[in-house]
Amino acid sequence: MAGRPDGDPAFQQPNGGDSAWAQELLDQLRPAGRDPRRLVDWLARTVSASVCLQDDRGGLLAGEWLPLDSAVFADVAAGRVSAASLDDGARHVRLVGIRRPGPGPGAGAVLAVARREPFDRRATEILGRTVGVLELLLRERESAESGRRLRRATADLRLAILQLLMVEDTVSARRVAAGLWPGLLEQDSARVYVLEGTAAERERLADACVDATEGRALVVRCPAVDEHVIVVGPSADVGERLRSLVADRRGTFLGGSPRQRLALTATAYGQAVTALAVARFRSDRYAVYAARTRPARLIDPAALRAWAAAVLRPLDQLPHHVRAELLATTRLGLEFTAVNAAKVLGVSRNTVRARMDRVAALLGADLSRLPVRAVAHAALDTEAAQGPYDLSGGAPGPPTRARLTELLGTSALRSWAEGLLGRLDEDGRDLRGTLRAWTGADAHAERAAQVLGVHAQTVREHVRAAEPVLERRLTAGGTDLYEVVLAQLVTGELPVPDVGTPGPGTPNPDQPDSPVHR
């Protein structure tokens, strides 16, 4: 429609001297004016008539509603006749079918024009030319709508694949992806990236990511954060392509995870979000999840793995797919809010809470307590990093408090914890004491303020002041906060929690209406 198809009768010069309306009709095809409603209004003014445009089912598309003979309308809509004229003595009516693209004689729409005066040569010619233009506009609109539906369906499919990866269902994710992106998830591992821009520009940013990665990555508009785009990149060059994209777009930031197994997409996503927070303060606006010293690296791997297996052993009685679903949901729920975890997984927040409640009951863990969440997070991360415990060497013993205290009591771990928390001692505001009270109050500023005898705002300010000193996000929760809590458990600033005594409300894992299935 960019050019003028002069061979089309709708665009030939009208007969007679009045040609002003022809130019006005052509103006309806300018990019700023391509609107069937605008064209119908123009037709009504030009031929002094009442005009309505209806779809083939009688729905009003443009103009004003007109009483029409239903049988005649049906004949025109079905394509049995291309046009019809009616005269009831008070008005003269013309009905013209607007053909839809594709096979079959049926009309996609019916244009009805009613005048008090009979249709003279001028009105008839204007009506005929207008029908041709309307057909072009409706075809363009249908094509644009089909394109929007296709883009939406593709975006929904990408999100579905990501949600399958988030709950470790890699087999189903590969099956879904194979239809549109063959080979995309053939590799067993990938990196996850999170790009941040503005909500208004996210569509363009996502499209730019698709173009930059050339089908080598899964690009998803984050369902939880309006400013984020998630990219799962199995190909090695995806990171460089995204980094170049960010360099050319001011106000855009990129965080990436290390390479992880596809089954650990949820873990990699959390790492990418953590890296994104660092990227906001870097000149190149890009960061990869830091390979800094983690407390788990300072514990004997075999002992840590056996302890984690003992903590998670009550879940082993569940079917594999249910266990994986529960653990994946709990990992995200511990890393983010229940609302955001629900959006990422494509379930309701009540479902997230029900699954986490079931895990809590099976593990005998009160997940409302911050130290317990930190310990549960450590157990889940250990299994995610090292894989399930090999029972061929014998089942691990119970996850007692004494056993956890022993794991946390190594000299290397104590040195790490004292070094981390000791950074706060140089501040004269006693940030360390405030942080201890805040974590001891399960990150509730008001409760911590009551213990300290200060205002809650003072507690919040101290916690925020501790973040750059510790180089960790605290108020956002997640891995960074849990590391600080573990450091406090190691130094004795917080008591080691007891995890591993299932409560009386433990749901039956074989019950079909158990909360995980809701």
Offer a few descriptive terms.
single chain, 518 residues, alpha+beta, six-stranded mixed β-sheet, 19 helices, disordered N terminus, disordered C terminus
Would you write up a description of this structure?
With 518 residues, the protein is α+β, with helices and mostly antiparallel strands. The protein has 19 helices and eleven strands. It has helices spanning 20-27, 36-46, 70-78, 121-166, 170-180, 202-213, 238-247, 265-279, 301-312, 320-335, 338-345, 349-363, 370-386, 401-407, 411-422, 431-440, 445-452, 456-470, 479-491, and strands spanning 50-55, 60-63, 83-87, 92-99, 107-115, 189-196, 218-221, 228-233, 253-256, 260-261, 286-288. α1 (20-27) runs parallel beside α4 (121-166). It is elongated and about 100 Å long. Residues 1-13 and 502-518 have low confidence and may be disordered.
Would you identify the regions where 5 or more consecutive residues have pLDDT less than 50? 1-13, 502-518
In helices, the fraction of residues equals: 40-55%
H/E topology pattern: HHEEHEEEHHEHEEHEEHEHHHHHHHHHHH
Described by the principal axes of the CA atoms, the overall outline is: elongated
Q: Quote the average pLDDT.
A: 84
Strand content: 5-15%
Helix/strand class: alpha+beta
